[in-house]
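Here's what a typical entry looks like (Cysteine synthase):
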Amino acid sequence: MPNSVLDLIGNTPLVRSKVLNTNPKVQVFFKLEGHNPGGSVKDRPALNMIKTGLERGAYTKDTKLIEATSGNTGIGLAMVAGIYGLDIELVMPENATVERIQTMRAYGAKVTLTPADIGIEGARDYAEAKVKQEGFTMIDQFGNPDNWKAHYNTTGPEIWRDTQQQLTHFVSSMGTTGTITGTSKYLKEQNKGINIIGVQPQEGSRIPGIRKWSPAYVPRIYDDSHVDDIFYVNETEAKSMARRLAKEEGIFSGMSSGGAATVALRLANQLKEGVIVSIVCDRGDRYLSSGLFG
């Protein structure tokens, strides 16, 4: 029996596509990270970054923590920080969905909204200024190795185990890049032939949770040697697939998961055989006010 809600992070379900994948020679599986208690894949690094930081003395109960986030990491951090009795300020663009903002506040975090036109990069700049000027400590999901190590220690081993070591392709949207970096590092150690596919938005497309960073803001944890190929999706494809996942597979998720699924299914149509796993990084209920589902 779990001692804490934190014990429920990880070991998320892997379910096979029964409708959207039409190639009988290829198996496509969706890993349902929305089943984590905070509702997304970001619960994993949130726990690892805070727990490990406390263990090595980087944080104490008196530390003023701050982090820039587009949503899911902030929710995970708010949940974990609250359980550990830590104060945290989360900085995000003002055009974030109200569900994400209210969820962070429900967990006890202070939420600061920055102008929408400067995006997540502007939120990062704001948080860094608070570190330099006001003595805050940044968790730094974009540069903290405990981010990708969470996936090396949990996500990768779970996928390898649950595909009975038959995995051929892993597909993940790229945001902070922690998921793809850590999972790839583990999977490549098991079988160098596994193809790691990153998903990014096409030029001009805005897909929450997926981004192509400008050079100055590329996450320091990212190592392109762990990614074999990058596929691009547009906003229309990602939205359409998120809706189809819900309606046809019963998988309720956000737009970034729709983007990854678009690539996974595109890949399935190109292969003669294979076992593909695509990350469904969160739940769709935090996007209801965005109009994603009509």
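Residues 145-162 form the longest helix (18 residues).

More examples are in the samples folder.
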